[in-house]
Task: structure prediction
Amino acid sequence: MTDYISAYSQAGHLFVPRLFQGFPEIKEALMSNKMQAAFMVAPMAIALRAQGVPVKIVYLGHRYGSAVVVRKDGPVKSVADLRGRIVAIPSRFSDERLIIFKALRDHGMNAKDLRMVEMAPPDVAGALAAGAIDAFSMGEPYPSQAEMGGFGRVLFHAREYWPDYISCVLVVRQDVIDKRPEAVQVLVDGIARSGLWLEEKKRIREHRLHAADFVGRYYFRQDPRLLRWALTKPIDRVMYEPLSPRRKDFELIVRLMRETGVLDRDIAFEEFVDTRFAEGVRTPTPWKYEAGDTKAE
Amino acid sequence: MSHSRRAKEVIPLKKIALGVGAWVVLLTTAHFTMNVNWDVLLNDRLPEAKRKLNVAYIPVT
Result:
């Protein structure tokens, strides 16, 4: 969402956006240098770095925007009701998995009380509707899709158990950071400005409705009505500021990854995050961009 | 008389070949326009220093 305007308004001078349908495929493409940068779930980026893959997190994609969804007419009315149920997650290396652990812990339960299955994000709403799963923990717009379809109900949003929750982060290969730091800076600048544009106080609703239209049609290839729902019901369902990577947010993720068995060693913040691009944002103002414009300034 | 009219109605082989050829060109052009991402294809052939960064994303906020 955050890179759309900068990608197209600058005629893609510095980067080419490539659509994927799952995080494992993104991971492989990044490792093989087919992709030089990627938006991926934060724990996956941390795990890659811990395994020695030369990548760094340089910025966030958004904050919040993940939820646990259950069947509207199903038996799950509370977190405690998840006991014995099947819950879909995008990856075992995802914040959507960690948020379930946090919620379970708050209710005196643990991961053994339910069964988590990995599923590609676009498949979860259909699986819930068909009764193949009892719940899913996923980023938008899939919770919105289940709500709009009339078969899903949000059990809880991530922010209820995890203040300042983050999910997708921008990851860049280390060789690109070393050889082409200016290009990485332009990419981060564009995302920062798009985030500010989406959060512009006086026109926040108008901008989000515009974004839902052009991102839905030309970028995500999804029904714009779905993104309108995801971006405005309520207006802070997904937030695009602040997007600078903060130490305490990532230390919490590392701790949760260690506790839940998907990270076998402690890893320092500096080892997997490069903050210089977030700190070096040159134009901290929203894009001047109207829907339909071919250029943003 | 009917024999000569029938002879006129036969479409020459050359015309058929031209028609098929035009159809193939039309379909090929449409395919290359709609289904090939030229940005990506050309970018991957540039020298590394000049190449645009390929940025992967998935349709999640």
User: Anything to note?
Assistant: Chain A has two domains: 4-62+166-199+240-279, 65-160.
